[in-house]
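Hypothesis: this fold can be encoded by more than one sequence.
Test: take the structure tokens below, design a sequence, compare later.
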């Protein structure tokens, strides 16, 4: 533990300041200097994971290679660091309390009363040490805001760790409002810092979200009242793209105070590739493509953040602009001519989802794309609906998924066999990375340029194997299958660009390594 370094990012004043983006940006700057980094996210909620949470409340559920269902911040970490993160980096209240109670029942604490300090905090520190084993520096993001009841035990564990090892740096992310241009208010930050200090933690660095860059006076005040040097107060301004933040922080030399506190080497960051991609996002060479995301949680864009980011990555690679339109699927159900809404787009994405609301609207959008040769990508539920649409409108079957109609005469989408017996809801879907064999000569194979891939999953239903022959005979191409039980993983149209995957291919898309099918999709949109 002693040769490892830890950087803790805590948020003050209000939620939603972008701690995940700040933590990812700093991790990126360390990685660009050759350090091996891993992120940890502390989430105070008592759910074991966020797999059972509604996207309306919590945003997208992100899935890791190992199948762990995690907070969407993990998507940010992976998109920035371009590496897959293991599930033990997500430490939730639910996981901790589950372990503690199980241990207590086993008799591990025999004779003792079990307490937040030291038992729960020890469990936190043990888990942090586990993650640190394989890396040089761990970035720890404390979910929520300092002062919340929910995350208090995480803050306390970090205070203890700092006292025990002294190889930590604390970053406080705050908000500095401007009452009018030039009238910046640092008082909330001053009070927030006192609160953190009262919990035994002195921030080494303060990063300020803001509407305008900090004035010299504001910086001076924060420094004087919060016990940090002026050189350790940083701007986190409004940016065109979140991917710009590492560059913005690098320019302000955030590495200097970190290196000083943690004894890091004086190395230069290699950000050349990153910079190039960011430039393509901010000022692309080619005209924008217009993409419609036809979904059911379109009121909360966070529900589809990985889909949106995968489009951003692909457009940055193709070096074209990107305009995303959010289309509420249920609105399409009532409309006479959905062309009024969809004709202005170059391509359509049907993302994943659960439950029947909006499904018929999505199926109409797929039919519209097929008949009007608009580029289409379907993701998870999107694949299932592409198959239903094909079965209905090309094969002439009265088809559906048993998720929406248990007694449909043609259940072209049905529960996976192993899902039939499941009664518990948490962590029981087909989750995480599964292999997929690609058929040569298909669009999928052309996109990946490989015979075998693996992508992440989160579903309970599949294309009913009893219908696969009939679908193929009718012209639908099955271009990817799981090697063991022939689960349909990818399907495509013959006559125009339309491809759908049972996997959530958007989850593995990173700025420096976009999802191959998204790149092909953007190129098809350009045509
Ligand atoms: N509801 C579908 C299933 O469970 C699709 C899930 C999804 O899109 N993630 O298989």
């Amino acid at each position: 533990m002693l040769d490892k370094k830890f950087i803790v990012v805590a948020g003050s004043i209000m939620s939603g300041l972008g701690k995940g983006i700040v933590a990812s940006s700093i991790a990126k700057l360390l990685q660009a200097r050759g350090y091996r980094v891993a992120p940890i996210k502390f989430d105070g909620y008592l759910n074991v994971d966020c797999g059972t949470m509604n996207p309306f409340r919590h945003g997208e559920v992100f899935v890791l290679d190992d199948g762990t269902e995690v907070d969407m911040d993990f998507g940010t970490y992976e998109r920035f660091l371009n590496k897959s993160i293991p599930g033990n980096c997500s430490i939730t209240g639910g996981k901790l309390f589950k372990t503690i109670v199980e241990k207590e029942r086993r008799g591990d604490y025999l004779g003792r009363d079990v307490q937040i300090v030291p038992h729960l905090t020890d469990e936190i520190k043990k888990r942090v040490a586990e993650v640190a084993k394989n890396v040089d520096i761990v970035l720890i993001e404390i979910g929520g805001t300092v002062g919340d009841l929910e995350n208090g035990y995480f803050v306390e564990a970090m205070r203890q760790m700092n006292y025990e090892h002294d190889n930590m740096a604390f970053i406080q992310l705050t908000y500095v409002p401007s009452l009018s241009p030039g009238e910046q208010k640092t008082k909330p930050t001053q009070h927030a810092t006192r609160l953190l200090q009262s919990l035994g933690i002195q921030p080494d660095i303060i990063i300020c979200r803001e509407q305008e860059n900090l004035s010299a006076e504001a910086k001076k005040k924060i420094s004087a009242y919060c016990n940090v040097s002026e050189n350790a107060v940083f701007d986190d301004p409004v940016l065109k793209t979140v991917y710009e933040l590492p560059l913005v922080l690098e320019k302000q030399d955030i590495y200097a105070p970190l290196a000083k506190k943690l004894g890091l080497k004086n190395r230069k960051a290699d950000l050349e590739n990153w910079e190039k991609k960011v430039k393509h996002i901010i000022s692309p060479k080619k005209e924008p493509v217009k993409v419609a995301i036809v979904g059911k949680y379109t009121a909360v864009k966070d529900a589809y953040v990985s889909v949106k980011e995968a489009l951003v990555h692909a457009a940055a690679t193709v070096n074209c602009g990107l305009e995303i339109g959010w289309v509420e699927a249920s609105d399409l159900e009532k409309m006479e001519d959905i062309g009024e809404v969809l004709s202005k787009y170059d391509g359509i994405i049907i993302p994943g989802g659960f439950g029947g609301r909006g499904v018929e609207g999505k199926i109409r959008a797929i039919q519209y794309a097929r008949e009007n040769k608009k580029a289409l990508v379907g993701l998870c539920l999107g694949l299932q609906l592409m198959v239903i649409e094909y079965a209905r409108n090309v094969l002439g079957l009265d088809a559906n998924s048993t998720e929406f109609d248990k007694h449909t005469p043609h259940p072209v989408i049905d529960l996976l066999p192993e899902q039939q017996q499941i009664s518990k809801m948490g962590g029981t879907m087909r989750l995480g990375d599964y292999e997929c064999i690609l058929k040569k000569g298909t669009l999928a194979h052309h996109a990946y340029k490989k015979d075998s891939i693996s992508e992440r999953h989160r579903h309970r239903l599949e294309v009913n194997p009893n219908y696969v022959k009939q679908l193929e005979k009718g012209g639908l191409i099955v271009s990817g299958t799981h090697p063991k039980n022939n689960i349909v993983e990818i399907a495509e149209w013959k006559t125009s660009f339309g491809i759908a995957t049972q996997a959530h291919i958007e989850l593995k898309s990173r700025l420096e390594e976009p999802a191959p099918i998204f790149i092909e999709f953007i190129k098809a949109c350009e045509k």
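Residues 284-526 form a domain with the Rossmann fold fold (CATH 3.40.50.880). The longest strand covers residues 286-295.
Hypothesis status: open.
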